[in-house]
Amino acid sequence: MNTQVIEKLCQLFGERVRLEHSIRQQFCQAPPGVQLSPPDAVVTVRNEQEIVEVVSLCHEYGVAVIAAGARSSLEGQINAPQGGVCIDCSEMNAIVGINTTDMTATVQPGVTREQLNSHLRETGLFFSVDPGANASMGGMAATRASGTNSVRYGTMAANVKAARWVMADGTVAQIGSRAPKSAMGLDLLAIAVGSEGTLGLFSELDVRLHPVPEAIVAGVCSFASVDDAVQTVASALGQGLSVARIELLDVTAVRACNAYSPSLNLPENPHLFLEFHGDTSTVASSVEGFIDCAHEFGGQLKISHRLEERTALWKARHDAWWAFHAYYKGRKGLATDVCVPLSSLSACISATVADIAASGLDAPLIGHVGDGNFHLLIMLQEGEDESVSIQAFLSRLSSRALSFGGTVSGEHGVGEGKVKWMSAQHGAALDCMRAIKAALDPANILNPGKMYHPRTVDAQ
Amino acid sequence: MNTQVIEKLCQLFGERVRLEHSIRQQFCQAPPGVQLSPPDAVVTVRNEQEIVEVVSLCHEYGVAVIAAGARSSLEGQINAPQGGVCIDCSEMNAIVGINTTDMTATVQPGVTREQLNSHLRETGLFFSVDPGANASMGGMAATRASGTNSVRYGTMAANVKAARWVMADGTVAQIGSRAPKSAMGLDLLAIAVGSEGTLGLFSELDVRLHPVPEAIVAGVCSFASVDDAVQTVASALGQGLSVARIELLDVTAVRACNAYSPSLNLPENPHLFLEFHGDTSTVASSVEGFIDCAHEFGGQLKISHRLEERTALWKARHDAWWAFHAYYKGRKGLATDVCVPLSSLSACISATVADIAASGLDAPLIGHVGDGNFHLLIMLQEGEDESVSIQAFLSRLSSRALSFGGTVSGEHGVGEGKVKWMSAQHGAALDCMRAIKAALDPANILNPGKMYHPRTVDAQ
């Protein structure tokens, strides 16, 4: 990288510019099969003006800029294949304000979801988006994150109301508003959310909050087959039951979670983990409605009556990653996700499970099935990181999701890991995305080598 | 317009090309203060390929292209200030398919909302977006329409899942998907929806459907003041009550509706018209919850127990436009809307009502207040169309909405009527929208002279 840029950064930010290899290594991440590429420098910023200064400098010198928050992305979103400057936003973690009438929180991008929810504890409101990690608001907005609650409360696309957004030349735009809706022009916020730092950097966000429901009831439901579980989900959603979480675990996942969580002792069958939100009567009738749906497909719902049981249940679900690593000792998990229309979910999962077996893989399956979204954690053997057969399996998984009218990622995003699928998924629409990228970042300094890169599945 | 374009259109479409002034006059619309500008030709298309043919031809010759559906837009969206070709999509009105599991309908752009809901009658599903007019799906998507149900079911932004989209050079892109969510790239669908035909034309849409709720209860609630009504709304929404419609009518609106609807005999006070959706117990508890909220602000809820009463109530609400015209005989209504955060709604309405009185206007106020959105129908005297004082009033209304952190339109959109406010509302973000427009339609053939036009409030 241009030494003048380094010098100027050091003048501006002093010790907050880090050039050591050991630090830079912490600010890159890549999925197996993608080379780890650290940035040339990491700069810790403390306010919007400092983001503007770094971006403006990089714009002047044509240097790559990548924003980092909690660094929990999974597809190489913060990898730096062209080097450049990583802007560490983790210290921009102030909760600027809460508006209880508008049910919004104004936050800096480094605020984490757990931090925000702790802060909200006395307000009767909560922030709903819950990806596995304790991710940052800026990062979650950038990757259009979701999680277990999205079936009821939506993804980040539905939960970011407005933002301040630093564009490629350092201009700051105010996008969106706290008004509940608008018909005045292009919804820039909607392309900013999910653009993975390739069009601009969030310097402040207004996010939606939701009233804490009067009643919350959780439970588990055992099925003879994944298909029975998925059909139950479709039936329950078709009736508009007040389901807030509906998570599938296949047999392998259940076994691993049983082994890891002392309080869990589930029959070794596919399960749904469920949570119902609403007022007391709504929840009661939704639970009854669900019991009827499940009964039709041979499922038995077991309610967790006590708060501790419910907490233990979701802890077990959130600990799945660790459970799988404990179950498959010495192996390394490769997390991936796809998402398909609900009507294709059962067929897509069946074909995938058959493929896992035929490929001789260990890959427990868990899913936000109310969203048609499922995850695999492929437990890699030593040295399988670059394995051709693993990559071939991932290719079949992605192709399969597309053939069912779905998307190659429901929540992990594009990064470097899935960029080669952009053309197959989007066709002419990718040219349209590229035109937008070229218009808003003509020098291609914002997170280059990602979303619009000309790699394809064939050219892999 | 280039005579070669006319000739080629006639070769391709024969009698479906209309050049008569009387026909062309029906394919333009403008709010008071904006000149009516008919297109040079109207072409009725029957399928996507025909849209592609017209757009490609216009692209070749640099001729303007405007899409029309039900022609019910209010801000001059289908006006043709630069002439050109109007593509009449009203005959592309096939319902291509319904997927009850995914709860989606695939429709051509000319399908109207009432047509779709009639078609859905036996399915247990419905389409929720209900602007005043029986608008077309393509037009509603283009203007990001909403209506009375949006407080619960969202605007078109939340109810279009996927689309086929004809871009400026005639390329057709598939945008979005029927998968419930995606994290693969820019959300092009979200900028297509609300772009008012300036970036592309919808040739097919997948829209979301919702389960018809088990129980629907409607009612009216009378208040001593608008402020009491609005505070009740905020309180009810803050508790997560299952409100599907929550409409404000000020005293003037109530008087006019009473006079027009034989079944309506409301006390001459501000009112909320309400509807609750859910299962029987949810609705019952939400109604109870609402009664408590209203009581705190002196409101009395009166439930419409019978279906006929409920139907009459919403008919009265939907007939408001006609009621106002009947009440103010010989006057012409100018409809406008703004939208602000819920926390500012009461203050914004109060200031507006005071301004109406000070300006000596007759302008009943109705609003989708759960969305922070309210409408005025300014009843113009003869010759007031070009009135400086009316325009000054509209300017103050728009400025006021912005000063409260809101938007100059919640649902009517930009068209030609509100384009002069784009800069004041969006600042640097408007440059960003212009860059996207220039990237996707470099020759500026798609609905030119609208959204990105350099008019400003000062230059008016």
From TrEMBL, chains A, B:
Start and end residues of each FAD-binding PCMH-type domain: 35-212
Matches recorded under Gene3D superfamilies: 3.30.465.10, 3.30.70.2740, Vanillyl-alcohol Oxidase, Chain A, domain 4
GO-annotated biological processes: lactate catabolic process
Matches recorded under Pfam families: FAD-oxidase_C (PF02913), FAD_binding_4 (PF01565)
Keyword field contains Oxidoreductase: yes
Keyword set includes Flavoprotein: yes
Lineage top rank: taxon: Bacteria
Keywords associated with the record: FAD, Flavoprotein, Oxidoreductase, Transit peptide
GO molecular function: D-lactate dehydrogenase (cytochrome) activity; D-lactate dehydrogenase (NAD+) activity; FAD binding
EC nos: 1.1.2.4
Cofactors, names only: FAD
Family: Belongs to the FAD-binding oxidoreductase/transferase type 4 family.
Protein name: D-lactate dehydrogenase (cytochrome)
